[in-house]
## 1
Amino acid sequence: MDPMNENFEPKIVGFLCNWCSYAGADMTGTSRIPYPPNIRIIRVPCSGRVDPLYVLKAFQEGADGVLVAGCHPGDCHYGDGNYHARRRYALMHSFLDFVGIEAGRLRIDWVSAAEGHRFAQVVAELTEQVRELGPWTGLQNGG
Amino acid sequence: MSQEIQEGIRVRARELLSVGEVSCIIGHERSAKGRVRPAFVYDEADAGRLVWDQTCHHNLMVYLRDRVLLSRRQDAPPRMAVVARPCDVRALNVLIHEGQVTREQVFVIGVACPGMLDGEGIQEHCQRCKERVPVFYDALVGEPPRGKVQDDTWADVAELESMTPGERLAFWTQEFERCIRCYACRQACPGCYCFECLAEQVDPPWVSIAHGIPEKAFFHVMRAYHLAGRCVECHACDQACPMHIPLSLLNRKIAKEVEALFGYVAGGDPEIPPPLATFRKDEDLPL
């Protein structure tokens, strides 16, 4: 790792769906499961609500990584929101990589309201992955 | 070849206007300085203004939609005739699918396209073009050219893919730096028809008015993503860009992925919904 980045703590923005993943994050807390404090959670109604615009904006405003999490496919509160999100972000990964934002900085995952352990694991994995990639400094506002 | 097509278009235009089948012909004309520009012909006597050659690169479907919008409050929507190359007709297919125009409103004067010229030779994307005759038309002018079609090897996309992410970022930073935010790419694009573009939205202000690389990159990346599964690769954006930014490269990357993931090519059958407007429950996508 770059010695300059020794004390680098990644900033990760997490878009969590209200019905599963946000409740899952709650479960992590109430179960007293430790997870990295690097994630900043934004609650959204559904993973299908997460416009790719939000992800790009997060990267532009200083996020080093982005997590989009929703209900497992088939469990969407609204029926099919996460199916749409799945297609959207399957495409977004390779496209962001194409413009220079490493695919590893964006993670899409499914966390149910009962999966407190899983949420902690997803956040820990993403945090380590982004730590390896280093700070994101391209295409940002105000340097 | 071009002469033949031009004559064919003029004959058709006279015919259509004289019997009153359409109210307007959308085609090309030559300006006083000799450059081609879009033309709107309402009168039979003006049909001689219409020109066609291999430099008529405008995608005229853009104007079609504007006309429909303008006349929305009238009793009957006007019927228009439009000169369309194969790529233009694919764009029309997208517009029809998205409910922007109806097939009945448009009389398509299809052009069997020999490809657009770029300086000396046929443009690269035209050499790759598989359909030299539009997928549908009401009248066809010209003979389908028999030139050999190059296979699309996605070499331009692959070249960038072979770089490291850092190199790609440097490449795009350098390209976007030239952007003057004139939005000509958006105006020329038949798929870009939002009433309020995200680049000009004031509340919330997604893209600031600053003239910095982040704003330019944000606009171009989001515009390309909005065209995911909808871009028909007419390359009107490239043609419109005064700074020669390879904008269609972004669209081509998405088109490549869309084809690989969903087996979909934009502008084909209007009955098949675009990939991001639909889903399959059992699909296994790389996340």
Note: The domain at 8-133 of chain A is CATH 3.40.50 (Rossmann fold).
## 2
Amino acid sequence: MNRNIDTFQYLLLRWSGVMVFLVLWEIAPRLEWIDPYFVPPLSVVLGSIGELFREGVLISHLLISLWRGLLGLLVAIVFGIPIGLLLGWRFPLAAEVLNPILRVLSQVNPFSLLPIFILCFGIGETAKIAVVGWVSLWPVIFYTVTAVRGVEPVQVKSARAFGISESDLLVHVLLPASLPLILVGVRIGAGLTFYILVAAEMLGASAGLGWLVHNSAMNYQIPRIYAGATFIVLLGYLLNRGLLWAEKTLFDWRETISGLVRDQAPADVKPWITPRFAAAALAGLVVLIVVAGSVEVYRANLQGGEVMPAGGHSRHVGQAVGE
Amino acid sequence: MERHQLILYKILAVAALLSLWEVLPRFGIVDPLFIPSLSGVISTIYEMTSSGELGKHTLVSLVRALSGLLAALVVGLPLGLLLGGWFPRVQTATEPLMELFAQANPVILAHIIIFFLGIGQTAKVFIIAWLCIWPITFSTIAGIRNVDPTLVKAARSLGLGRFRLFLVVVLPSAAGSIFTGLRLAAGYAYIMLVASEMMGASSGLGFLVVQSQESYNITRIFAGASVITLLAVVTDQLLKLVEKRLSFREENDADDYVRMRQAVLGPAA
């Protein structure tokens, strides 16, 4: 829509809102429009982020949070995609009949499940991963069912006409055709996951980005609260954009097959990385985070054994603040 | 498949699930300490209702969630309409900022919000409203942007004024999209409600759940969780009903999914 403005001007306009906000964030506390004790200026917050980086704290907590989120997401994918495929492709009647139950289950509040999971699995990593998995399971299932149902019947029929076996049909026709939409489900799950995970870490954990913010708040290190929060916001944004980019790079063929997702990538934008490479890079990143995260979680749990706060920790402190 | 037959099957499926919930813990196939039987949960709900405890907590939570949602609607809808309908340049300029704000998890911000609003009701409503504003704004913008230009041109050529055009053409076409955002926001409202009540409250269903967790009373946790789920489902169904009454066109799955992603990820997604 902005064909007549050139790209630079467009980018300038697009990011002007963010820039104004950042400038205000720097100026307002400096000129004492708002109390700099409660809202430290941007530069102080950035300095605090740098400090956390240099101490190595930030990377460690980041890895732990990413590890938890990723494992939860993997659990959701491992269960969600086969269930979705079965329901959408093999048993459409069952999908229809079970729909109300699945919808209600998807509405079950993850935070009210957290205590149940903690009681079942203990306060360790399993409970958090289970909550994350639960939250992202539903978008993955729903989108997989819709994706499989949306596969062009012509493609299935012509594959059948060539005498394809059922398993080959699944692997070579149904799965590739529905993957783009399945990934949308994964992306929505991932976005939600990040909210829930960080919140869960605030409510009861001894490590992770959520805990970092919570701990800073408990110690009245206000710039660190902002540093942690800013970092989490940036991370969420990058995660979102990264997944969007992956979706565009991996599935640049999809306009031709799926009527569900319309006019995504403009035709003139050629991805500068091949889908195969992007997939490999993504897989490598996942493995890296899982491995490095496991080490980090193991270390954190060794250290944190004695300082592990109880489940309701934050609430008591909150009440104490309120009194 | 006959329509009423399908409904029968659905009811049967629900009944089967509920009876599993009753039977499995009763015969010890799953540990009743972790998953109490349905009848136990129901009798707990009944006891808590007759003592007035459940009613009180439910009312408190409902007021919080709905005022948060209402505040989000009052801010988000006009914001989306203005940005999407009248000031596209301003919308371009603020879109990345809004996307960043949408990523700002209110639970993380809770400590900061408490500095300004204290720990009372206002902070909780603000936390809920903050998360709910973005899906509403995003889907309103997306809805307006996706109005069929032919319709607008046709209406213009029939001599409709700007205001009438907006009221008669743009708003009805965008209604479906707006409702998707609203329903998503309603879901978020309940999620955030429980989170905010867990962080510091002395009443509400989230408080009830945490309190029961501390006294290891699993049946009460299940009772609280069931009521929250019920509230969320009822709210969603009500919104769906209103949507159906208001909507002017056939519902279709594909549109719904495109709208969903725009509500979650911003109008550009």
Note: Chain A touches chain B through 74 residues (CB under 8 Å).
